[in-house]
Amino acid sequence: MKKSMYKSIDNKADAPHHVYMEFDWDDGKHAINLEKHRVDFVDVLAAFEDDHKKVVQDDRKDYGETRYNMLAKLNGRIFHITFTPRGTVTWLISARKANQREQKRYEQRS
Q1: Do residues 58 and 67 make contact, with C-beta atoms less than 8 angstroms apart?
Q2: Which of 51, 44, 27 lies closest to 97, judged by CA?
Q3: CA-CA-CA-CA torsion for 77, 48, 107, 14, nearest 10 degrees?
Q4: How many CA atoms lie within 13 A of 8 on its CB side?
Q5: Contact call for residues 72 and 48 (beta carbons, < 8 A)
Q6: What are phi and psi of 101, to 5 degrees?
Q7: What angle do CA 84, 63, 74 make, to 5 degrees?
Q8: Does the pLDDT of residue 59 top 60, yes or no?
Q9: What is the pLDDT of residues 36-52, one digit of tens each?
Q10: Residue 4 near residue 23, CB atoms below 8 Å
Q11: Nearest to 57 by CA among 45, 41, 68, 49
Q12: Which of 4-13, 40-49, 63-72, 87-96 has the lowest mean pLDDT?
């Protein structure tokens, strides 16, 4: 069951068109994330549009699936978002405001 479908317009293509991304998450993890970080997954979906986002594979341990950590700016604030692709769905695992070290990493354009 998909939780959210995010629609944006891709103006980089020859002809602007709508881009749809499907997101989902575990309701229990979502509740824990809200309590612990005060960040709602729905509120950070637009961060995936950040042209300057930084995405790295999280290989600190074997999660049984490929996970990614993303630093992205949304409404002037930088967020750290962990997700994994599951077929055509982007499965959100956690989202929080980036700490100072992560903010500096994001600001270092590479």
Answers
A1: yes
A2: 44
A3: -130
A4: 13
A5: yes
A6: -60, -45
A7: 35
A8: yes
A9: 999 999 999 999 999 99
A10: yes
A11: 68
A12: 4-13
Instruction: Set out the domains of the chain in order of their start, with CATH numbers.
Output: 20-107 (3.30.2310)
Separation between Cα atoms, residue 47 and residue 51, nearest integer Å: 9
pLDDT of 7: 55
pLDDT by residue (tens digit) across 68-91? 999 999 999 999 999 999 999 999
What value, to the nearest 5°, has the Cα angle with vertex 51 and ends 42 and 48?
Answer: 20
Nearest alpha-carbon partner for 39 in 104, 101, 93, 102: 93
Asked whether the beta carbons of 90 and 22 are under 8 A apart, the reply is: yes
Tokens of 48: 């995936």
Nearest in space to 8 (alpha carbons), one of 43, 47, 56 = 47
